[in-house]
Amino acid sequence: MTDKDIAAGIKAATGLDIDRHRVKVAGHIKKLGKYTAKVSLQGQISAIVNIAVVAI
Question: Can you give the residue ranges of the Large ribosomal subunit protein bL9 C-terminal domain (predicted)?
Fold first, then answer.
């Protein structure tokens, strides 16, 4: 899962168009599990996004 995938997921869920360069993930997401990402919104405002990677 890439920063681009996370930005696309945010847009699909909320309608907000987030630039992938504003998404920061500690490490790489390559396995199933729970992760967090920091999204810089504007200036010093940021949000923490919880991500669950599951098998379908």
Answer: 2-55
